[in-house]
Request: fold
Amino acid sequence: MPNTTNPLSKTQWAAIDKRVRKVDEDRWISSRYAPSAQRRALTALYALAYELARVRLAVSEETLGLIRFQWWREALTELEEGKPAREHDVCLALAEEVAAGRLKPGAMQRLVDGYEAAFVAQDRSQEPEAWLALIAASLLASHHDWAEEIRDVAPAYAALRRSETKAFGPHVKPVPKSIRPAVAHYRLRKHYSEKGEPDAVTKRLSILKAIRTGQV
Reply:
């Protein structure tokens, strides 16, 4: 049966957006250049990624972490089955985007699996950075020729952001215009590799250049 969950209010969406901006500013800035409907879907997606990524910080025992991942796994299954969303603002946001056809529960299940595997291994390099970016790109374009580049660049960007390396990573061809709001923040690799996390103005200018040129 169809999902009958009431839509979130503008205030609730704004709260989720503010949360993503606080915890994942790089992706948040890039997402501002997406069309409004896709921008909202990206916000919901990144909010889910944050919920999954922060499990490692929120629990002290592996069993408790696994319970949280299973909660999200079941919540996504319920959305796929057309059941009402659970009473969690991110889950409610995801429900709207699933109903609109912009997000696919099956794709997000792979995010849960990836973050869970990284959590169990206690190895953040296993976090599904590339898959997250591939989902984001698919929101903006059903077809593009940059999937291989995403798989190459995403882990390099993530390692730089976590201060685990100073290596810039692979040099790649320009990003197709259609998916730039999903990956423009990869241009920040230059700053992370040279001086660490850039300030807010530098981030915005660098991402804007990536949006305009596709150079990351």
